[in-house]
Model the fold of this input.
Amino acid sequence: MNKLSDSPSREEVLSFLSKSASYGNLGAFIGAGFSKAVLNDGFNDIALSWGELLAAVAESLDIDYEKIWKEGVGFPEIASKICEIYSQEKRIEYHKAVQRVKQKIASLTSWYPDKEQRAAYSSHMSMLNCSWVITTNYDLVIESLLTGASIPLGPNDSLTAPTGVVPVFHLHGVRTNPDEIIIVQEDYVGLFRPTEYRQIKLALMIKESTMLILGYGLGDVNVLTALDWSKNVFSGEPKNYPNEVIQVVRKENPEEDPYRDRNSIVVLETNSLQDFFEEYSEAREEELKKEKEIHENLIKLSKELDSPNESMIEKFIDNGEFRLQVLKTLSTFSNDLISGFISFINRCIDETWSRSEPNGAFQGYADNLSMILDVLTTFSIKQIPPALFETAAYALQRVGYYVGSEPGQSFEANRVWSSRKGELSADMVAELKDFAKQHHYIYLKRLCQSI
Done:
């Protein structure tokens, strides 16, 4: 399941997040609400919202924040107004006032979780298992929780990181580099150029990932634009990977059931981020148990395919239900099993040829053909590993000589072909025809012409 339904259950949303984490494309978009949830305890509220931060900047610069008109005005415009007032009062150039404001922001966001806070949230962030984090925050709270496992990136950095390290991309700048902080209205002008890296990268990441939004209210036009681009500018084929935008929203009386908002974002309400993390961790642990069991079974099956005994080969040939079960598992986990399976299927094919050696033993050809058709009908042409297609197509060419109603041919194999050839998809038949033409396989060509 690569998309959630229009009305998913809470369990389905949490499971989807966990499966995205296991797939390797879960990303988190984190806003100021996250830092407040980690740092503020109601008695010593350290972290500030964007509006509170601007008020603190104005106070530190002896500017009357209350006199600045804020009705219907965005925070970048308010920041620009603070810079303008400071420039006039101090009789300095506007760009120097902007620099001063950014330095104040860097100073005022010197927030670090203490030992208890790290203990509470570090395990949650590790359990989340994000491949990347994008944040509008200037602080280094996220990096403090992912100690040794993350790297902070500024708005002018490429969003890349070494293996095993989570890139934390500070969309509006990071406090350790005040000059790159994006705060005033002028800073945003360049963000909407058609070829601006951040805008394109953010849109592509939304399109290619499952994005979990924490402590953020989707008020940034920069992010809303990227969300729109991901759906429209970069629209394309249906996804073959987990892909959703899921927002965790704190409410005093949260709804039990998730829902989709007007932007088709899945909204999951919770009392607090701590509650969400605990709920997710429980679901993640359950999902990891299932994945461990599947992994152990795959290892067992892989070993059996690598070194099969005679009874397993005979069972695969003679027991159609068992054969389809193995092929279904292979189609789901082909990367884990395909190497061993190629060797295994060739041994099974060889066994059917051995069965056909005695005079009049035509059933072996039918068994051979049944196996090949099961392979070619279990996989779509887009899904089948190339090496497996070549193996099956060559096997079909080889047995094709004996499929027919002439003397010396297998009537039973002919009945199998006549009854099952319609199961082959049009794409698979076209690929078999091309393969037969390229390799001059006349018996494969003849079979395909009969479809």
